[in-house]
Structures are given as structure tokens and as C-alpha cells.
């Protein structure tokens, strides 16, 4: 099994974190135990990749952080431009070459109630070196997914357009169960029984010369997913966005996941269905790598 890269404890590091408009020592970036966002799941976040010292699609990620907050009913107290500037400065101060950025926003601790009332809104930005979600050879061999009993919820029951921490409870439960069963990650269906996504990445499947991906109508349509759709068009690869049933999984030749953290991650098996790392996966992976590094030039 290809487990995630281990990192040292994230609460005990040197450096600084941007918190509510200023940089504070890393170990001092704390919040109160009665914070509303901790008790009622009202936090939103982003994940951004640093390539060659620069952040890929920073503005898109920051805009989505604002959009996620609005979906949860609050407004961030910093503009997109202010958050972009703070993010760039955090990366510069830490000298990050190839790593990760985590902006997060949450409601404060003015009171404890299901109602958010007039709670304050806080924002933090941290960054660290982080090469891969999975071990290095996973890019060549692919990972194994196990189908989860957990499902992505209906848009009528959850803020599915937001990158909200509350929605990741499902992902944690699914991935932990997958690890216990010997898989690298989990495949989630949606509330109707259609194939949806992995726990932290969107799904693509290849049949012949055609790329298929689930319709993102009840889960987050990732920025990397949109990037891959654009790359596929540039490469002349036909893409079909459609509802995919689990019984169809054996009809595909290749499979890969997309996400800021995952980048382009080949999948070699979903339960008993096996896939090869074929020419379409390879072409998309190479095009993506070229794009992120050229964009940083």
C-alpha cells in the first residue's frame, strides 16, 4: 500500500503563519477551544501548490476561498488581493521551492450556539515543503482505491459548492476505512449511487480514446479538474462529463485522480477492476507538469 508522505507535527515548527493580518511565530498561531468553527464545522479552506517557488493559480484559489465562505453565510475580512499578497509573502519568508499552502477561514469564539450570530471571522495562511501525497513510486505504479460505504450528499442537504471542512468528515471516515482494508484511498459514490470522486480528488476514466469524468453536481469541481479539461481540449482528447454507474468501472482502460495536492495521480485498481497507466494518463500528466512549471517561469 502506498501511504502518504509523513511530515513532522504541524503544530511544532519554526517559521511564521499569517494570522488575521500579521505574521506570528508558527507555534503561537492558536485559536480558543470554544471557537464556533471548531464546534459547528463553519470553516472553509484551500490547498495551493508551490512550483519552483511560485504558486499555481493563486488568484483562482483565493477567489474560491471567498466563494466558499459566502456559501457558508459569512464574508472574509480581507480582499482577494490582500490574501494573495499575504500568501506570496508567506512563501517568500519560508523559502518554499516545491510545497503546499493552506489558507483557512473560520468563525470566532464570541459565543457557543448553532446560530453564528455576530461571530468574528478569522483567516490564517500557512505553507510548508511537501512533495507528494503518496510515495514517489505511486506516480509510476498508480494507487489502489476501495469503494466506500460513505456517499457525497445531495445539494439540498449540504453546501456542496464550498470547500468546507464539515464536508471532509465523510472523506476522513472513507479514507481511514480504506487504509484499514489495505487500499491507498477510497472511491465515493454520490447520494444517487453514481460514481463521484476520491476522498480528496476528482476522478477521470479512459475508454479507448475518450476521457470520462463524473458530473460535478454534488461535489466540488476542482481547479485541477478544470485545468485537466482544458489540457484535454488542447491535446485533442474527447471528454465526456456524465453520470457513471459503479457497474461501468470494469469497462475502462485507464483511471487517474486530479487535485491540487494529488496533481495527476494514476490509479491501478478500484476494488477488483484493474487499469493501466496508458497513453492518455501519460499525456495528461506530462502536459500538466509542463504547464505548472512553464506557468511559473
Describe the structure.
This protein is α+β, with helices and mostly antiparallel strands and 297 residues long. The chain folds into two domains: 16-129, D-amino Acid Aminotransferase, Chain A, domain 1, CATH 3.30.470; 138-296, D-amino Acid Aminotransferase, subunit A, domain 2 (D-amino Acid Aminotransferase, Chain A, domain 2), CATH 3.20.10. The chain has seven helices and 16 strands. It has helices spanning 36-40, 58-71, 80-94, 138-141, 168-180, 223-235, 279-296, and strands spanning 16-19, 22-25, 44-45, 48-51, 54-55, 99-107, 121-129, 143-152, 185-190, 195-198, 202-207, 210-214, 238-242, 254-259, 263-270, 273-274. The strands form two sheets. Strands 8, 9, 10, 11, 12, 13, 14, 15 and 16 form a nine-stranded mixed beta sheet that branches. Strands 1, 2, 3, 4, 5, 6 and 7 form a seven-stranded antiparallel beta sheet that branches. α2 crosses α3 (80-94).
Q: Which word captures the global form? A: globular
* Text of the CATH class of the largest domain: Alpha Beta
Strand content: 25-35%
- CATH topology heading of the largest domain: D-amino Acid Aminotransferase, Chain A, domain 2
Major beta sheet summary:
9 strands, mixed
Low-confidence stretches: none
Number of domains: 2
CATH architecture descriptor text of the largest domain: Alpha-Beta Barrel
- What count of helical segments does DSSP give? 7
Averaged pLDDT: 94
Distance between the termini: 35 Å
CATH homologous superfamily annotation of the largest domain = D-amino Acid Aminotransferase, subunit A, domain 2
Number of DSSP E strands: 16
Structural class: alpha+beta
Name the helicity range: 25-40%
Radius of gyration: 19 Å
Order of helices and strands: EEHEEEHHEEHEHEEEEHEEEEH
Amino acid at each position: 500500500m502506498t501511504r502518504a508522505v509523513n511530515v513532522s507535527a504541524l503544530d511544532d515548527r519554526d517559521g511564521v503563519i499569517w494570522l488575521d493580518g500579521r505574521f506570528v511565530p508558527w507555534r503561537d498561531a492558536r485559536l480558543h477551544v470554544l471557537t464556533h468553527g471548531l464546534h459547528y464545522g463553519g470553516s472553509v479552506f484551500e490547498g495551493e501548490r508551490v512550483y519552483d517557488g511560485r504558486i499555481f493559480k493563486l488568484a483562482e484559489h483565493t477567489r474560491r476561498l471567498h466563494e466558499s465562505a459566502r456559501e457558508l453565510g459569512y464574508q472574509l475580512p480581507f480582499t482577494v488581493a490582500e490574501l494573495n499578497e499575504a500568501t506570496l509573502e508567506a512563501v517568500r519568508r519560508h523559502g518554499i521551492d516545491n510545497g503546499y499552502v493552506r489558507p483557512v477561514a473560520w468563525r470566532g469564539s464570541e459565543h457557543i450556539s448553532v446560530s453564528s450570530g455576530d461571530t468574528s471571522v478569522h483567516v490564517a495562511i500557512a505553507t510548508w515543503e511537501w512533495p507528494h501525497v503518496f510515495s514517489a513510486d505511486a506516480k509510476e505504479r498508480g494507487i489502489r482505491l476501495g469503494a466506500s460505504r460513505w456517499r457525497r450528499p445531495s445539494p439540498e442537504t449540504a453546501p456542496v459548492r464550498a470547500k468546507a471542512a464539515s464536508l471532509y468528515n465523510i472523506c476522513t471516515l472513507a479514507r481511514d476505512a480504506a487504509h484499514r482494508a489495505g487500499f491507498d484511498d477510497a472511491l465515493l459514490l454520490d447520494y444517487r449511487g453514481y460514481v463521484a470522486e476520491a476522498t480528496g480528488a476528482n476522478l477521470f476514466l479512459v475508454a479507448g480514446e475518450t476521457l470520462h469524468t463524473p458530473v460535478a453536481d454534488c461535489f466540488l469541481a476542482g481547479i485541477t479538474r478544470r485545468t485537466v479539461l482544458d489540457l484535454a481540449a488542447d491535446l485533442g482528447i474527447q471528454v465526456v462529463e456524465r453520470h457513471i454507474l459503479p457497474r461501468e468501472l470494469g469497462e475502462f482502460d485507464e483511471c487517474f485522480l486530479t487535485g491540487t495536492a494529488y496533481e495527476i495521480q494514476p490509479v491501478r485498481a478500484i476494488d477488483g477492476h484493474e487499469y493501466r497507466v496508458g497513453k492518455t494518463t501519460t499525456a495528461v500528466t506530462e502536459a500538466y507538469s509542463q504547464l505548472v512549471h512553464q506557468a511559473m517561469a
